[in-house]
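SEVERITY: medium
COMPONENT: batch folding queue
REPORTER: lab tech (J.R.)

DESCRIPTION
The queue accepted two submissions in a row. Attaching both inputs and their returned structure tokens so the on-call engineer can compare them side by side.

ATTACHMENT 1
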Amino acid sequence: MKLIIILICLAVERFLAFGPKIRCFKCVEPYMNLGKVWMEKLPVWFGFAAVVWLIPFVIVVGLLEWILGCFWYGILGLLFSLAILFYCLGPKELFQTVKSYQKALKSKDEDKAREVANELMEECPHDAAAVPGAVSTEILVGANQRIFTVLFWFMVGGAAAAVFYRMLCQLKPLAKQAKAEKSGDFYKYAPCVAVAFDWIPARITAFFYSLLGYFTASFPIWRKLVLSGFDKSKMILRDCGLQSLSIDPKSSDPVDPKVVGQSLDLVDRTLIVYLVIVAVLVLVLHLA
């Protein structure tokens, strides 16, 4: 069942672009504000209050997935899990946005290319020559956070785990805002927990980047960083991904715009490997 859900979600995410139009997380802030009123006065949480406040919501999702799976031969549970997984991907669109960027580059429309690049990443370089390299890095790093980590936790813990990860990611801007306003420790460690959830999937994805690219040059980087701290997840994805494309991640030279397409192709190949592994695991568990 999980394989069917993943295949449908990835097909829609990969080839259609309506995902960001229906993904809305505006309810997160009011929900967290309610928890802040109730829990902020309890110092026992030591800055993990926002994370703890997510647990009841996650439990409800898990219970709904289990209860709906008991009716109509599990079809209701399948549809519920399908909706949750699709909602947790992204939330910003990756594939079609990159295609729009490539189209703008091909037509030599620099203004449009920069506009699309700004949609893709939080900070776009001012130097036009540096934009393709930044876009390539965003593809390699962002694919893990938008797709691969969500798939990993969905396979491990179902819809509840996928929701928990996506909600943790949505707390990052709230934590940043609270820190700037010095409004307490409610969100203090929420970003750290989100980064911790990235740790294992980032290293799996980086390994596949190495395996599917220039392995002899990329694998030593992976081996060096595989046991590094939580804060190195973006680095291992970037360095292994770029080195797999025969690009020195430490070089300051402008990246050829063609690398953008190569980065997207590497993500596609990695996605195929993920699907194959999921299919094998489903088959093995079914036969066991």
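ATTACHMENT 2
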Amino acid sequence: MSHTPEAIRREAERLLEAAGASRPPVPLRDVVSMLNLSLVERAQEPFSASEAALVPLGDGHAIELYGTRGDRRRRFTIAHEVGHFVLHPGRVRAERGGLNNVGSQSQEREADLFAAELLMPEHLVRQAAFEVGADPRQLADRFDVSVQAMTVRLARLGLAERASDLLPPGRDIL
């Protein structure tokens, strides 16, 4: 099942409203808790590029987090898995890397968009950019996300001509 960007935005807004998230940074633990998801730390598996997976756990589900990454990247990873939980409920299974088919690539893009909408809601990003300018570093601090994620978000919202204009010299987007 494919979701439109508008439908993804509405789902993220619904969760934010239910969690009472009205200003940055979004209290991601409240969202996870409200969905009755558990966060479980696991050791990184050899030869695995996966940072997380949504897996069955008892009567519910858990987001398994692998290895150690920066807190801000981890927040995006958790929000991405919440996106799978909300948008792709039949997909709940451990992912162990490997080749992705076109359908799963589409679901990955949808989960990324959901994570961006959840952690950096458009109305809050626009308000913050109006208040302090479209500086990705400053906004990343305010929203507790990576500079890279905020850079992409600002570009997609049309708050920068090109994402590359916002990046420090020598940095690539995603």
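NOTES FROM REPORTER
The first strand starts at residue 37 and ends at 42.
No errors were logged for either attachment.
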